[in-house]
Amino acid sequence: MHAIRSKTLLSPNVTRFVVEAPRIAEIRKPGQFVIVRLGPGAERIPLTIADADPAAGTITLVIQAVGKSTHDLVDLDPGDAIRDIAGPLGRPTELLPAGHAVCVGGGVGTAVVFPIAQALAAAGVRVTSVIGGRSKEWVIFADELRGTGDVVVCTDDGSAGRKGFVTQALAELCEGGGIDEVYAVGPVPMMRACAELTRPYGIKTTVSLNSIMVDGTGMCGGCRVGIGDTSQYACVDGPEFDGHAVDFDLLIDRLTTYREFEQDALARRSQPGQCLEGDR
Predict the structure, then answer these.
(1) Cβ proximity of 181 and 204 under 8 Å
(2) Whether the model pTM is above 0.70
(3) Paired sense of beta strands 162-163 and 150-155, if any
């Protein structure tokens, strides 16, 4: 059992948990993730390790409440416990050794890009973070990222930072030159747009893929992604890949595989006792 030490609401549907997981905290590296299971029979959910404190024996998980299982998780409170946390899983981030890196985070993806920015800054790399949200209340990890370098905040309505999308700010940085690598994490359309934007400049662009996972060890094949002319598995070959080689059409198609089931499960959760279409 992994006790929850603290819980913080970061945005209307994003929650940060600090959870006891001493062995994971000791060895995790940027880019790696865990598979979380709330209890027996519960869904296995992959979550990036947003931060860790080896001395305290804790890791930080940032959860966006979208479906039934993530809503069940964010309903937990300090003192409650998560039954299983397996990890660290996945390949660590291949960090730029020197130069200027731009870390682009969209929505909850900002929490995923934070440990990358942390590690880059610690290695002496110049870091510029470009983060965004629909409006001020949807922007997360801005203060934490300011500890790693310059931060450009973008909001759709202009309520914080500059008005516009993260891709517009990234385009301006690319035009200015001097960027050695881009790390982009967020919604699939955003990562795809970042990769297409940097392609003409020849800037290496790393993206973190949120494909469907079950076991996290490469056994089930559910997280298969197309990278160039090959099929790879996000859980063991990734989750980070060359954004210019990703088959985003295949990724989008596979992400919709269980959408009906997910919507039905969420409806059952919000309307207990009611007969739904799947019950007939």
Answers:
(1) yes
(2) yes
(3) parallel
Cα gap 14→31, rounded to integer Å: 19
- Which residues neighbour 106 within 8 Å (Cβ) at sequence distance 6 or greater? 131, 132, 133, 166, 184, 185, 186, 187, 190, 191
> Is residue 245 over pLDDT 70?
yes
What are phi and psi for residue 52, nearest 5 degrees?
-155, 150
Residues in the chain: 280
Q: How far is it, in rounded angstroms, from Cα 69 to Cα 72?
A: 5
Domains (range + CATH), the chain: 2-89 (2.40.30.10), 100-255 (3.40.50.80)
- Report whether the peptide linkage leading into residue 88 is cis, meaning its omega lies within 30 degrees of zero: yes
- What is the identity of the amino acid at 149? G
Can you tell me the mean pLDDT for 198-224? 86
Alpha carbons 54 and 23: distance in angstroms, whole number: 8
- The phi-psi region of residue 121 (left if phi > 0; otherwise alpha if psi is between -120 and 50; otherwise beta) is alpha
Indicate whether 202 pLDDT > 90.
yes
What's the CA gap between 230 and 106, in Å, rounded? Answer: 27
